[in-house]
Amino acid sequence: MMPANASHRAECETVGRWLFDWAIPFWTERGIDCHGFAHEEFGFDAKPKELGYRRSLVQFRQVYVFARAAIMGFGMPDLPCALFHRAAAAAWHADGGFVHKLDPTGLPSDVVRESYDQAFGLLACAWAYAIDRESKTLEYAYRTLVFLDAHMASHHGGYLEEPSARLPRRQNPHMHLLEAFLALYEVTGDEIFRLRSAMIVDLLERRFVTSTGALREYFDDPWSPADGALGEIVEPGHQYEWVWLLHEYARLTSEPIHPLASQLFDFATSHGLDAHGRPVEQVNTRGVKLRASVKLWAITEQLKAHVVRAENSARDFDPAIAATVSDLHEHFFLREAPLWFEELAEDGTPSRRRMPASTLYHIMLAGTELLRWQSGAKSPLARALPT
Question: Which of 98, 136, 177, 193 lies at a CB distance of 3.0 to 4.6 Å from 119, suitable for a disulfide?
Answer without folding.
Answer: 177
